[in-house]
TrEMBL record:
InterPro entries: Actinin_actin-bd_CS (IPR001589), CH_dom (IPR001715), CH_dom_sf (IPR036872), Spectrin/alpha-actinin (IPR018159), Spectrin_repeat (IPR002017)
PROSITE patterns (UniProt xref): ACTININ_2, CH
Organism: Pavo cristatus (Indian peafowl)
Keywords from the UniProt entry: Actin-binding, Repeat
Domain Calponin-homology (CH): 1-70, 79-185
Region of interest (Disordered), residue spans: 236-260
Name of the protein described by the UniProt record: Actinin alpha 4
UniProt cross-references to PANTHER family, sorted A to Z: SPECTRIN/FILAMIN RELATED CYTOSKELETAL PROTEIN
Any one GO molecular-function label of the UniProt entry: actin binding
Superkingdom of origin: Eukaryota
Length: 474
């Protein structure tokens, strides 16, 4: 029963501890029942014969146990245990000189097959080239000693018995060779498992490197979106700084800052979509500016043509009007001068529409003596213009104090509405603070969605109120 537990790796029923014959027979029957439960047919083997010391029956049962638990599980290409073990030996020893395994008796007499099996799996243990076919005892002892010392395979055979026997015992050699099969197959399984573990570790390491690369690339991409936007706008919009526009383009870096940890693919995709939308809006603004400038260029060319024609018409007219030839003219000469002057007045009236057209074009182009003396009305508004965007369009002539006063009054009239909006924003902040305190919610130190605080709003409001000459609390 102990042999069966060791060779099968399973627990058998507890044996009876008595020394009487009946106890021994019961223990042997338990062993035979276990063997039968594994699908092994026991023919002519009884418990009584085993207990009585029948050597033939005992050896037969032991061989049956070895065949079932050590050899029967061997399978190579769906062959039987014996054929599979033989095929395995043939394949492993095929490359070796003087080895031709055809059976489990004569093919193993010279010992070269045993050494070839060991050398095939552990070449550092055997110097196969130094073995001689005419020295079988040395070959066999070498293989048995190496197997026992390095492979934990007990020495089951005797070299002299094998050499001196015409036909060595097939079952004994098969049992011994099966020990090699299990030893090497176990090592091969362990090596396979180790290789798989190495592959898994390599994949995990590669995944970690990929994760690090992804995090770095994602951080660089997000950083380029949030920090490089204003520089790009400065480059693209440098030509339009003097062209006020009622619809300034959106800034690429105007999105609320996000935490560095928010680098998931969906966050990157969302940020990329926002960037595309912002770029599309900026492109539309640029196209509108191009169309506006093309129209202004067309108007300027039209203005130059009409002005040139008008200047050509006015040449000599002022000198003609300043002439004093009427002082010495006769009556007929005076009548001729009157007719000439009436013709000039008619011509002047005809040119009046052209002059009005030129004046209208000049007004649209902001040409004229007053256009060059325009400046931003409020320096605070101009200083607050984001980089890359045109300055505000609110301008008045410097030499027109009444217009400046009127524009200032118009600006002051908008301050109450702005103050109410400021109070509404601060009220929302106070309400959020009250709710957080009511529910004992600990707010983060920095708002992840905006960098503007109530203190910043109040500070800027005080600056605007001071510049407008209005008390900040009014």
């Amino acid at each position: 029963m102990l042999l069966l537990e060791v060779i099968s790796g399973e627990r058998l029923p507890k044996p009876e501890r008595g020394k009487m014959r009946v106890h021994k027979i019961n223990n042997v029957n338990k062993a035979l029942d276990f063997i039968a439960s594994k699908g092994v047919k026991l023919v002519s083997i009884g418990a009584e014969e085993i207990v009585d010391g029948n050597a033939k029956m005992t050896l037969g049962m032991i061989w049956t146990i070895i065949l079932r638990f050590a050899i029967q599980d061997i399978s190579v290409e769906e062959t039987s245990a014996k054929e599979g073990l033989l095929l395995w030996c043939q394949r492993k020893t095929a490359p070796y000189k003087n080895v031709n395994v055809q059976n489990f008796h004569i093919s193993w007499k010279d010992g070269l097959a045993f050494n070839a099996l060991i050398h095939r799996h552990r070449p550092e243990l055997i110097e196969y080239d130094k073995l001689r076919k005419d020295d079988p005892v040395t070959n066999l002892n070498n293989a048995f000693e190496v197997a026992e010392k390095y492979l934990d395979i007990p020495k089951m055979l005797d070299a002299e018995d094998i050499v001196n026997t015409a036909r060595p015992d097939e079952k004994a050699i098969m049992t011994y060779v099966s020990s090699f099969y299990h030893a090497f197959s176990g090592a091969q399984k362990a090596e396979t498992a180790a290789n798989r573990i190495c592959k898994v570790l390599a994949v995990n390491q590669e995944n970690e490197h990929l994760m690090e690369d992804y995090e770095k690339l994602a951080s660089d991409v997000r950083g380029s979106w949030t920090h490089g936007g204003s520089q790009r706008e400065e480059g693209f919009g440098a030509g339009f700084l003097s062209c006020p526009s009622p619809n300034p383009p959106p800034q690429w870096g105007s999105a609320p800052p996000t935490r560095r940890s928010a680098l998931r693919p969906q966050d990157i995709n969302t940020g990329w979509q926002h960037l595309e939308q912002a770029e599309k809006g900026y492109e539309e603004w640029l196209l509108n500016e191009i169309r506006r400038l093309e129209r202004l260029d067309h108007l300027a060319e039209k203005f130059r043509q009409k002005a040139s024609i008008h200047e050509a018409w006015t040449e000599g007219k002022e000198a003609m009007l300043k002439q004093k030839d009427y002082e010495t003219a006769t009556l007929s000469d005076i009548k001729a001068l009157i007719r000439k002057h009436e013709a000039f007045e008619s011509d002047l009236a005809a040119h009046q529409d052209r002059v009005e057209q030129i004046a209208a074009i000049a007004q649209e182009l902001k040409y004229g003596p007053g256009a060059a003396n325009t400046a931003p009305l409020f320096p605070i508004a101009a200083a607050g213009t984001p980089p890359g965007l045109p300055p505000p369009a609110l301008t008045v002539p410097r030499n027109n104090p009444q217009g400046l006063i009127a524009a200032h009054d118009q600006f002051k009239a908008t301050l109450p509405d702005a103050d109410r909006e400021r109070e509404a924003i601060l009220g929302i902040q106070r309400e959020a603070q009250r709710i957080a305190e009511l529910h004992s919610i600990k707010l983060a130190g920095n708002n992840p969605y905006t960098s503007v605080t109530p203190q910043v709003i109040n500070s800027k409001w005080e600056r605007v109120s001071a510049a407008a000459g209005r008390p900040s609390g009014a």
